[in-house]
Amino acid sequence: MQETIDHFIDYLMTQKGRSQNTGESYRHDLERCAAFFTASGINTWQEVDQYAVINVIAEMKREDCASTTINRTISSLRQLYRYLLRRHEVQVNPMDYIDLEEVATRKAPVTLSQQEIEQLFAIPDTTTVNGLRDRTLLELMYGTGMLVSELINLKRSQVHFDLQILQLQDNPRHQRIVPLGKIAKEWLARYLRATAGDSSDYVFLNARGGQMTRQGVWKNFKEIVRKSGLSKKITLQTLRHTFTADLLKNGASWQAVQTLLGRETGRESFESYIRFNTQELVTIYRRCHPRA
């Protein structure tokens, strides 16, 4: 079963051009299912029937998994069986009889106001290289919506100041371009000048001159949040949520935001971000409507 998963993930990334993050998400879901099936005495994907899948879903419910997590697993299995059917490796698709779980109303994610952004971003001591690095990280996360994995893997060769873009590439077939805003560009340029003597091609380095890790970024971020005194439950994802919410509130289409985020999802995923007061609606109307 593991060999089939490996071939399927390779197909997604090399033939369908899916990102590394998407591939790892599919892998996580399918390996979890495969472990459950194996423990139940099912050792091939051909042996899986609708009842085996129903048992997986029931087990996930017993583990108190969210409906969104269960639905993602169902979707991963559907994609796998479509792949196996096209290759004539299975004759029957057990997913034909499986429905998605009903999902509770999506809660609006935590986002920050501009005042809170300024309060948070003022914490790093930009007179030091590490403080300048942390401020630049914050500016890029909010200014581009990049993922932490994309930030720590960003290389100097992927920064194009002349075009005001960052060129991100998870694999040879999957590339996306991220616009670089004025403020984020200024901080990034300042940080790169300060670290011009470093031999590494990676942009963000730790105190020892090596590539930063997720854990390192998270550790520094938690300390910045603590010092800011902000009472909201703020995570690294909060900056990406704020990037998304601000674009939508200022009239960007969900399709445009979807492309900027590098996401493969529908409009419903963005609806929870759109919460307007009356003045915000008036402002958007006056800016966006041709007759306003």
TrEMBL record:
Domain named Tyr recombinase: residues: 107-286
Keywords of the record: DNA integration, DNA recombination, DNA-binding
Matches recorded under InterPro entries: CB, DNA_brk_join_enz, Integrase-like_cat_sf, Integrase_catalytic, Integrase_recombinase_N, Integrase_SAM-like_N, Tyrosine_recombinase_XerCD
Residue stretches making up the Core-binding (CB) domain: 1-85
Protein name per its UniProtKB record: Tyrosine-type recombinase/integrase
Pfam families named in the record: Phage_int_SAM_1, Phage_integrase
Nucleotide-binding is among the record's keywords: no
